[in-house]
Amino acid sequence: MTEPIPLDLARLRRTCAECSLQMLCLPAGMDAEDISRLEAVVQRRKPLTKGDSLFRAGDPLRAVYVASEGVFKTVMLSESGEEHVLGFHLPGELFGLDAIGSGKHRCEAVALGDARVCELPYAHLASIATQVPSLQHQLLRVIGQSADRDQDHVDVLSRRQASERIAMFLHGLSDRYRRIGRAADDFVLPMSRDEIARYLGLVLETVSRGFSRLHEDGIIEVRGRRVRILDVAALGALTHGCEGGQPPQRRRSGG
């Protein structure tokens, strides 16, 4: 008779509380042996600090990643050396999927601050997924979520009005914070205004003016990088160019 596999469930709950794979393990979905098998291949990287690269363009596919703490941006450099921000990756979101097709990364992942990462070696992960159907199903789901975020970015860039792009960015970020169990209407932006501008295809001054306008209209409250969403409906209306309704009334303070 084999010895039972010891599991520290309290540690697993602390470690995986915000992981995009959490529903495989907690509270159910995999037995003790499957959980142990998955935990055995997950590697915890040494802490990263702001500006550290997790992988660079041209690096071979070795793993996919989930940030357990901190936020990452993925970027590409133009021929002139200008940085284009492709996406932001919150705790619990799987990233590094850009290399699955070609076997090489097409972009660079950079930490926006102090961060910790769970690294899932791709070869081992693919092997385990064939043996554990629930893992395979979950991987397909989070890959689908990643594809949805890419499509959202395309939708943002297709909008002509800067106000729509900024509103869509904040609305989408709010939804993503809600999905990982964080406050969706009061959060600190992990990225700078300049990084937001590079993501939205705008200039820094336009983004700054856009945030100020939303603040003056009473839709959000901005204090440095802290954002409070005061009028969810109005923010949602702006993401659709106020179609189907009247633009929100301006609520400037003062007489």
TrEMBL record:
Superkingdom assignment: Bacteria
Keyword set includes Transcription: yes
Coiled coil: none
Intracellular or extracellular location(s): Cytoplasm
Record's keyword annotation contains DNA-binding: yes
InterPro entries (alphabetical): cNMP-bd_dom, cNMP-bd_dom_sf, Env_Response_Regulators, HTH_CRP, RmlC-like_jellyroll, WH-like_DNA-bd_sf, WH_DNA-bd_sf
Pfam family, one: HTH_Crp_2
Residues of the Cyclic nucleotide-binding domain: 26-110
Keywords linked to the UniProt accession: Activator, Allosteric enzyme, c-di-GMP, DNA-binding, Repressor, Transcription, Transcription regulation, Virulence
Domain spans labelled HTH crp-type: 160-233
Main subcellular location: cytoplasm
Subunit structure, as described in the record: Homodimer.
Name by which UniProt lists this protein: CRP-like protein Clp
Organism: Thermomonas beijingensis
Taxonomic lineage from the root: Bacteria, Pseudomonadati, Pseudomonadota, Gammaproteobacteria, Lysobacterales
